[in-house]
Amino acid sequence: MADLHLVVDRAAGGVAAQIARELREAVRRGRLAAGVRLPASRELARDLGLSRGVVVEAYEQLVAEGFLISRIGAGTVVAPAAGRTAALPVPPAGPDGPSPTPEGPPRAGSRTAEARGARREREPYHGRRSTAPDLGAFPRERWLASMRRTLAALPAEALDYGDPGGVPALREELAAYLRRVRAADVSPDNLVIVGGVAQGISLTIQALAGRLPRGRSPHDLGWFVRRASRPAPPPGRIRLAVEDPAGGRQLPLLHAAGADLVAVPVDGEGLDVEALAATGARAVLLTPAHQYPTGVVLSPRRRAELIEWAAATGAAILEDDYDAEFRFDRDPVGCLQGLAADRVILIGSVSKSLAPGLRLGWVAAPPGIAESLRLARGELDLGSPVLEQYVLADFVTTGGYDRHLRRMRREYRARRDAFALALGEHLPEITVRGVSAGLHLLAELPYGWDEAAVAETAQDCGLAVEPVGPMRHAPGPPALVMGFARLPARRADATIRALADALRRRPAP
Amino acid sequence: MADLHLVVDRAAGGVAAQIARELREAVRRGRLAAGVRLPASRELARDLGLSRGVVVEAYEQLVAEGFLISRIGAGTVVAPAAGRTAALPVPPAGPDGPSPTPEGPPRAGSRTAEARGARREREPYHGRRSTAPDLGAFPRERWLASMRRTLAALPAEALDYGDPGGVPALREELAAYLRRVRAADVSPDNLVIVGGVAQGISLTIQALAGRLPRGRSPHDLGWFVRRASRPAPPPGRIRLAVEDPAGGRQLPLLHAAGADLVAVPVDGEGLDVEALAATGARAVLLTPAHQYPTGVVLSPRRRAELIEWAAATGAAILEDDYDAEFRFDRDPVGCLQGLAADRVILIGSVSKSLAPGLRLGWVAAPPGIAESLRLARGELDLGSPVLEQYVLADFVTTGGYDRHLRRMRREYRARRDAFALALGEHLPEITVRGVSAGLHLLAELPYGWDEAAVAETAQDCGLAVEPVGPMRHAPGPPALVMGFARLPARRADATIRALADALRRRPAP
Fold first, then answer.
1. CA nearest neighbour of B21 among B4, B33, B41
2. Above 70 in pLDDT, residue A89?
3. Residue A144 contacts by C-beta under 8 Å, 6 or more apart in sequence?
4. A69 has a chain B CB within 8 A of its CB
5. Which of B293, B247, B239 is nearest to B270 (CA)?
6. B94 contacts on A by Cβ (under 8 Å)
7. Cis bond leading into B245, ω under 30°?
8. Do residue B381 and residue A237 have CB atoms under 8 angstroms apart?
9. Is the ipTM of this complex over 0.90?
10. Chain A contact set for B85 (CB, 8 A)
């Protein structure tokens, strides 16, 4: 018979639930092993000075949950299944998923790679991306006001599962906005709301690789069980060209979505379309408005060549419009999608304009692909949360979005000017590349400098920088992506001077 | 030379942008064809009575965007790539995705299947699910108050990309809540926030099928391009047992995630574990607290057998805890996961307790699987929106969630009682199955009744009902899932009486 050591606090109430909780914990932690017999309810009640009904209630609860077994004549015993500790075997590594360690030797020149690896483990996802906006400027009061208006006006039904392609009010507002500001050729019907650019790109690639549903599937158990008896053919893959250099964070996502990557060089005019044509790629992902990381704008000639290539080969163009709201030296160039809406899929979000944490983005695509994305979300996650979609729609309608963008454009322009000026002053060895736009600039280092070491020094000075080496396929000069959006203009000079001092104190590279 | 028919509103300002917009539209719509030469900027300026600089600015914008080409000596012409209309070919149907039409003949007895199909097309996703909560009771003011507190207190960095496994504050609150209310064996570390039960189930199956990453992958372009040169082996699949009958909406999702479905019958004690063992399934998805659609609770004996089966075979148990907050006849039975945390993956959400539109749910899983899910979201969509995660955390901390649940439990109990009473009164031919819980009940119809026809009549009476036929693999008696959560108790009698009258007016089945 078990000695239960039960502690019951009668004043707290819910005494039966307390007993159940203590017994459950004792079974889980192995203090009450399988097969152990519990005291009869009458005895335990007497020991605890409680009515028998309370103990019976606790025992019944644990019998219903499977912790205890009660048999007539045999009393109440701990169930054999309870409290096991043999772990569920972790499934074998997915053949299609990336393996935990990269292949081949570590890259030359990365003597601090391990140190940076450790640092990345400590801050796995938060903050300090070089392309992050100034989150202190998030318009909290106006956002809350939009939320208040939304909650006051929304019919109850709108809180149900939404259209997985996005709530119509937001698609209307965003389509008008993209037509006006990005010269996009888009209607609410071919615009799909997604959880940010990452999801937009992932789903688009899955659609192009033939992995997404193209029509509503039946919800019929019999049909699905019959279907399972046939072997499922492997999902498709697609050869996708990406820019070289390119942002590294999307790479695992692209691969997981079914893309086999081929790198195409970027020069002063943007993506080299002749090299692209030689790859046999069926799709290309690029950042024409402000190439990441080089900051180059795709030239008019290359725009024309790219559309020609897509038209001739039937390929798709994925336009990542990640920071196109911010161009400082002239009006932003209209998006590629506006030039050839039948071949280009435009993908954008509010991650740079408002905050990444909102996870709100959009995809403007030819109707067949837009419908595939919508159906896919209906079968994957049932769409994005609706409330903040309505809030963003209100924020755009009432002019809050435009006002915020105007303010941030002025602010970021001042920050970039101050940043570039300070670099020229204190680190004249560094060459700033790319146009005046976005939230980062490309700083090319003199040959021989160790970009990883310089990046680490800059991070220690509080700068949001990333080495370009891992973003390259073909070798290139050492360079850093330097984020300027979080550094107030008045602090740029002192910060860059501190960086220059720190670099001069280091042993010569 | 083109006749441009430009309309410029000088008073509106931004004249260069107006000209650019009109020209862009003319190219897109084919009014200005490829190769057509535009008037010299000087001429057009004179015609419009504008300064030449304005026209030059508009032309330059369209050259940068690729709509126009400007060559020295040849003037400005419409680009050949602009305004094409050959559509991007829609990709071939995915071999792994469901095809648009089910195979085989339509089910017997579904004489109104087509009519219902058409109706579903008109209301593709919104409303009237039989398991929907009463959305009119959503606590808008308290939610807004939580949002206000959150926005007042949150540090700016919290608006950045969040932990893809969910913000720590919410995982803490939910782990404590699940331990307290669901007797779950969970800590913040093995809890992952997801965009609802659908995404939670989809990702869990992908993890079990070996489709998800198991370690952080490198973000290195060179590595990914080298990797693309080797053929990718097909992603894994897993044999998954589901309950028969089962909710139909998850089926396409399960299949897309890599599950080959096998159906296991449900009887008065819940899932038949002996039949399960005979299937060779490597995992099972079930609803132990309140089986959908039958309303049965998994018996203590079956709970023990199920855990034994999983321990003996190394299989995984997916526990869909979709409406377990609402049990009316007794305290809710603790979740299966609390009995065997190493074998059971618990999946829940606020879709029934608050609103489906919030798209907020959780998965409590053994550490290896939890980490796989977290990494997967870091490579799929970068996690759920953070702001509403903080709001939900505040809502739980401040007691708003418990208060709302207590209120709704009272309300739904009254509604279920009134509903069942009215059915007994006006439609005594119908048998109510299952325990007093959740947001729906199972109404078994007499043999010979056409459930599709009865469902349609009930829908016409304003009831949220669904026929059970498509949810079955093995044949069973005609039955309906009837939602009672949106029908106020005082209206139950009149509504069910109207249904009884309408059914008696129909031609005999």
1. B4
2. no
3. B147, B148, B151
4. yes
5. B293
6. 209-214, 235-236
7. yes
8. no
9. no
10. 342
